[in-house]
Task: structure prediction
Amino acid sequence: MNAYEKVALARASDRLMGNWYIGQIIDDFTELHGDRRYSDDGAIVGGIGFLDGMPVTCITMNRGGSIEDRIKRNFGCPSPEGYRKALRLMKQAEKFRRPVICFVGSPGAYCGIGAEERGQGQAIAENLWEMCALKTPVISVVVGEGGSGGALALSVADKILMFENAVYSVISPEGCASILYKDSAKAPEAAEALRLTAADLYRMKVADAIIPETYRTSEETARILKKRLVSELTALKKVSVPRLLASRYEKFRAIGAM
Amino acid sequence: MAETMIRCKKCGQETADAQLLKNGRICPCCGNYFRMSARERIALVTDHGTFREHDGELKSRNILRFPEYDEKLEKAVETTGENDAVITGYAKIGGVPTALFAMDSNFMMASMGTVVGEKITRLFEYAAENRLPVVGFICSGGARMQEGVLSLMQMAKVSAAVRWHSDAGLFYLPVLTDPTTGGVTASYAMEGDIIAAEPGALIGFAGQRVIEQTTGEKLPKGFQSAEFQLEHGFVDLLLERRSSGTVIGRLLTANTAAERRGMYERV
Ligand SMILES: [Zn+2]
Result:
């Protein structure tokens, strides 16, 4: 499968995303709404539940189901309010010493006049700034398309797990092609050049593990993901907070270090 | 040798390059701010002869073997005489010792790749170790697409270093200049204790053409200008170029007073 075929898979409208996996692996999930500042962004869903008995905060991008639902949720493209809600829930998790699990899968941050007026850049920057020093374990699972800074705002994590057919890129292949080749139809070539597949990210030491999708059913894939999350979080919870933060710093410090 | 004349985009007046430089790259006719190179900026704001460059030898490589990147890098190095899009180092501004960085829009629109990320990260680490404030002159087209996700991750890497420096009780002043966009806006441009912006600068996250295409809406006048960001509460002040050194020196003095009295423990 070439890179652009993976992009298509990651984006497929019937692809199961974070909200489905939360339903599968988290018990007694309670959704929590709103950023306490402006509104409740449906492109981000967050709440509390139990992973194998362990209380966790889960945050996911949500593209929505029906057409009306998709429109309401902006096709999973978060506005500043979405990132601020995510941050509020992460700070709450820190206070109550619960780990955070983020699910990434959407084209990216919403591009619009209102989003700019309310500080899309500032909202993402604040998430990066806070996540760097969040005193609780954070795991980010890239389920679908991880697009640019809008995805990064949910992935400054101790561990980044990537689904086998997920992608993560600095720019969409179409956007890249229209800049590079002045032709968005050359997106397949751009996808190749951008090195955006799970295997690429694992090789570049951005992704820490790949979740295989070769199982017969999605329920089986979910079980594998759950097992992996339980083992990662069990290990991370044993690490002291200063050591946790130091190794998070080192993880990102090492990317492109000279 | 014929003088290079530069035309003002705002009023159309042509001014000789040398005269424009002497005038701080401000149009003598209408007061419009032209973009400045990183070296010109450093010369403008720092106390004469105090600048010491760091990591000037760091050079981008085409890590992903991205098409046409080698040629673009080569051309940028040739036209600017710089190794990459940011210059970092130590200087005094208004008599106050500071770490500083200046990005250069002439070098691939000051896009942020691994070298830019690494140099700025090193600068914040150096400043934290040496108890220095950081002043950053920012401009950028965003993350450097030719370095793929590695460039995206520099947003997190630099942010972590900024946070580390801040948690040590130290002051960071980003000055946003034309244009500040994309991943740089969504990271260290917006992480200052005080955020200054040059009048008229374009400052935003998403590109204007992308917003128009996505929403089908016409953008309001002055959208994503420094003045727009001031009005919406995202920058603290507009910084006039002529007095910028003086104002920065004042802000540095006010925000390093506790440090000079030894009120913070050494890290
Ligand atoms: Zn003019």
Residues B 8, 10-11, 13, 27, 29-30, 32 surround zinc ion (CB under 6 Å).
